[in-house]
Structure formats: structure tokens, C-alpha cells
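Progress against Task 2.4 (sequence-to-structure conversion) is shown through the following example record, which the project officer requested during the mid-term review.
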Amino acid sequence: MTNSLSSQSDEELLTEIAKQDHFAFSELVSRYSGKLYSMAYRILNNNNDAEDIVQEAFLKLWNNPTIWDGRYNNRFSTFFYRVVTNQCIDHKRRNSYRQHEELNDKHISTVSTDKIIEAKSKSELINRYINELPERQQLALNLCYYENLSSTEAAEIMELSPKGIQSLVLRAKENLKNKLKLYYEKQAI
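C-alpha cells generated for the chain above:
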């Protein structure tokens, strides 16, 4: 192999993975595990579940590296995001669980306890309202805002047009705005 693994395309790595090349697989995991975990966490709000989903997706890929078919002109990354997204949605549908958030220990020493509690409360409130959004609005919002994907990339993952994604994001933002407005109005009473 003349090219180093890091310079190979995803497609080239998949060819090597089909030959049971552990190093090629490790390179692909290194490229995508952080991004996929972040997305899965935003959907599930649970560290362990997000890790499990990403691990399951990579295990499926290792066992069947030909699951991606480039004939449909979609990139492997788009396809694999869709796989993980679908697994998250299925998991969320199958399991009811409480929302868990962890505080980042690095910030505890620099911010007062009151501010931490206030920030955690706001974050929990927003996450609760995001979780109450219709599933497709949640996913569009997570992909575009928390994963920083373009409308085109998010559209490919969700199998929609970019205008469809933009519409979902706008509706999600409007729903969140209304829920927060109502919440704060009730707090003022």
C-alpha cells in the first residue's frame, strides 16, 4: 500500500475493510466516531446509549463492509450518518428513558454554583422542549445546529430537499420559541 491510510478515501478504506484490514477500519472509526457520537448524543441525550449506537453501527460495518453502495451517488459519510440517525430514532422509539446531562468538571471551578444550576436548568428546559418537538424537526435542528451540517448535507441524511430541511428547522425554532415564551410567561405570574 503506497498511500498512508489517512490519505485514503472512505471508499478505499471500505475496500480494505472488506479484506478484514483492521488498520483501515481503525482509520474509518477515527474519522467518524467523534462526529457520530456527538450527533447520537444530541438525539438521545444519554452518553451510554450514544456510545452503544455508534459502536453497533461500526460493528455492522465491520461485519458487512459492503452495506454502503456508492452507485447511488451518495457519499459514505452521508450514508453512515443516516445509519446512525436511524438507529438513534429506533432506539428512542423502543426505549423510554429519563433525560440525563452531565456537567463538565473543567468548568465547575471557574463558574459559581448558582450560575451552574441556572445554566443547567436552562439547558434542561431547552433539551426537554427539543425532545417534545416532532421527530423530524428534532433531527433537522440537531443536524443543522448542533452538528453544524449544511442544509444540503442534512437533507441528504434525512432524504429531503434542502428547502425541506430549512422548513423543518424554521418550524422547530418557532415551536421552541413559543414553548419558551409560554414557560416564561407562566413563571412571571
